[in-house]
Amino acid sequence: MSLSHVVTYSPAYTVVPTYECFNRCTYCNFRIEPGKSPWLTLQDTEKILTRLQSQEVCEILILSGEVHPQSSRRESWFQLIYDLCDLALSMGFLPHTNAGPLSFAEMAKLQEVNVSMGLMLEQLTPQLLQTVHKHAPSKVPQLRLQQLEWAGKLQIPFTTGLLLGIGESSTHWWETLDAIAQLHENYNHIQEVILQPHSPGAQQTFDAPPFNPHQLPEVIAKARQILPVDITIQIPPNLVTDSSWLLACIEAGARDLGGIGPKDEVNPDYPHIQHQQLTDILEPAGWELVPRLPVYPQYDNWLSERLKEAVNRWRSASLLEESIK
Ligand code: SF4
User: Fold this and answer.
1) Ligand 1 pocket: which of 14, 18, 24, 25 to mutate (most atoms within 8 A of CB)
2) β-strands 116-118, 158-164 pairing
3) What pTM was estimated for this model as a whole?
4) Which residue of 14, 116, 256, 293 shows the fewest CB atoms closer than 10 Å?
C-alpha cells in the first residue's frame, strides 16, 4: 500500500473537565449553564484512564467549556485542566487540549503537558458576531487568530479548522483558509485543518439545515490548493454519513478522520463510526486506515524531554499498531 493511499485517525478518548461555558454559540450542542455542570475530579478521571489503559487509546483529548478569563474561578479551572493533562501523561497517554482561547502564559504552561493543542478558527468573517456568535465573546475572529499566532511563537503543534454552514459565504472559507496558510508559512506549526460540516443537534437553537455533504469534496479540493502540502485536511466521518461521499472527500484530498472514540462530545447526536466500519468503507476503495499519534512526527523535536519520551514510547514500540490488533 503506497503512502498516498493511507488515511489516518487518532484512537482517542475525550475527557471533559466541565461542560459549563460562558459563551452561547447558537449552534452549540455541548454547553451547560455556568454553575450547573460539576467539574470532573482527578480521582474520577484516574478511574476512567485506568480502564482505558487496556484499550485502544493513545490520545486523551481534553475538551472543555470555558470559564471567563476575568472570573475568580478561572485559575482553578485552568489548574484542573493542567492536572488532568499531567495525570494522563503520567499514565502513558498523549494529551491534546482544546479549551478555548487562553492567555499567552496559560498556553505556555499547558505546552508542558500537551503534545499538541487545538482551537477551531471557525470563520474569520466578523459578520457572524451579529448572528450565531452574538453572545460568544470567545469567537471574536481576531482573538482566535492571535491564538494561532501565539501557538506558532511557542512552537506548539496545532490543529485548527473551519465550521462550515453557519451563515458564512464561500468567499469567507477561502479567506479563512488563506489566513491559516499565512500563519503556517510564518511558523510552520499547523499540523491539521478540520473541515467540519454544520450538523444540527437536539440542543442547539440555530435553526438552519445541515451543511450539504455533497458540497464538501469541492471545498476540500479548493482547501487542498490553498493550504501548504504539509498541513493534513481532516474530516469527521460521523458527520459525513453517506459512505460514497466520505470516499469522495478522501479522493478530494482529506487524509485524516480525527479522533475516534466512544462519543463525539461536540456532536453528541452523531455517534462515531468505529474502526472496523471505517475499514469496511475504505479498504474496498483501496485506502488503508492507519492509527496515528496526536502529534505528527515532524514536530517531535519541538517537544520537551518528558513529552518526547512519552511519544517515543508509542513510536518506537509501535504500541499503537499493537494496541489495535
Ligand atoms: S461552541 Fe464552544 S464556545 Fe460556543 S457555547 Fe459551545 S462550548 Fe462554548
Assistant:
1) 25
2) parallel
3) 0.95
4) 14
Provide φ and ψ at 194, rounded to 5°: -90, 135
Distance 25 CA to ligand 1 centre (A): 6
∠ CA 121-124-181, nearest 5°, is: 70
Question: Which DSSP helix (H) or strand (E) runs through 81?
Answer: helix 74-90
* Ligand 1 mutation pick, 23, 27, 135, max ligand atoms within 8 A of CB: 23
Q: Give per-residue pLDDT as tens, 6-55.
A: 999 999 999 999 999 999 999 999 999 999 999 999 999 999 999 999 89
Q: Which helix (H) or strand (E) holds 86?
A: helix 74-90
Task: List pLDDT tens digits, range 149-184.
Answer: 999 999 999 999 999 999 999 999 999 999 999 999
CATH number of 3-307: 3.20.20.70
Contacts (Cβ under 8 Å, ≥6 apart) of 200: 27, 206, 208, 209, 210, 269
Work out the burial of residue 160: count CB atoms within 10 Å of its CB; fewer than 13 is exposed, 13-18 middle, 19 or more buried: buried
Is 249 labelled a binding residue?
Answer: no
Give the separation between CA 110 and CA 86, rounded to whole angstroms.
9
